[in-house]
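Recall the central idea of this unit: under ordinary conditions, the amino acid sequence of a chain determines the structure it adopts. In this exercise we apply that idea directly, starting from the sequence alone.
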Amino acid sequence: MTTMSTGTPAGIRADASLSVERDPRWERILRRDKTADGLFWYSVVTTGIYCRPSCPSRRPHAENACIHGTVDEARATGARPCQRCDPDGALAENAHNGRVTRACRMIEASEAPPTLDVLAKEAGLSPTYFQRVFRRITGLSPRQYGEACRAERLRDALRSAATVTEAIYASGYSSSSRFYEKADSLLGMKPAALRCGARAERLSFAIGQCSLGAILVASGERGIVAILMGDEPDMLARDLQDRFPNAALVGAEPDYEEHVAQVVGLIETPAVGLRLPLDIRGTAFQQRVWNALQAIPAGQTATYTEIAKAIGHPGSVRAVANACGANTLAVAIPCHRVVRRDGTLSGYRWGVACKKALLEREKGT
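Accordingly, the structure predicted from this sequence is:
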């Protein structure tokens, strides 16, 4: 990169400014997007420093900034690392992502979840520090991730095993009594009910209207299991029935209208939040993706690639997109905040126009 001096002609500075402002990464720098850390860096000609995108320092003028794809490119300008944001530390974060990815593969391949000490030793970190890094990257503790993997194996086993007990031991549980202590929280229902296709489950639902169209909200004993959006109320009801084919669907309950009103309020005014509990159901991988989505602040976006890196699966961009598509809790799990690498909108099961409207409301535009 050629460093611009204060004697650089105004026309050249204007061209450089226009180039930076057109770069989709510039917008992420302006909003101090933490999910962009480690993906690119920027240097400032007037101060001679380089920073992470999330640096809390005062933002430079576009004509004084250069964006770099690697930290080596930023260093090559002769700039020094910022003391406030420690841009070289992003390299350590990338190394942590690799350690956590290997730990996840180790947990997934083990019949019984490895201990924290074993995982930390394999990662070359202290148990306390490894636990903190693992939780920051995945949104779960190693134990929680192991339990989610084992519960996923159990769900599969319950559909094919001759008995519930056989499925419990086949999934790596050492005793049935220890499993039953956690069964409801792990599966969201009784094991026998899951084995029979969830026939015993009762779901209350109601359909309302918001400025974006029809909206359906459905809940079980533990909280909301589905928030569906669309143009036709009848289609939403059929969609719910397809998603929960063996559940007893109960509508037209007067008290349940308040649930719909709260969700409509979240859509119309995102700042109000949602005070209702969620019953989030999915595979271990899906839940990690959904946890990452919930960590994206309102008014901000992240790419599928960034979400894949954040959960320790940098090569699973397509799987991340599929997990977003499998989300049944529109708005509450904000898959509308995920965009393409170039910042354009696509891939929203409830329509790109709806996605655009939700993002504009969150940004206050």
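The CA atoms of residues 38 and 89 lie 9 Å apart.
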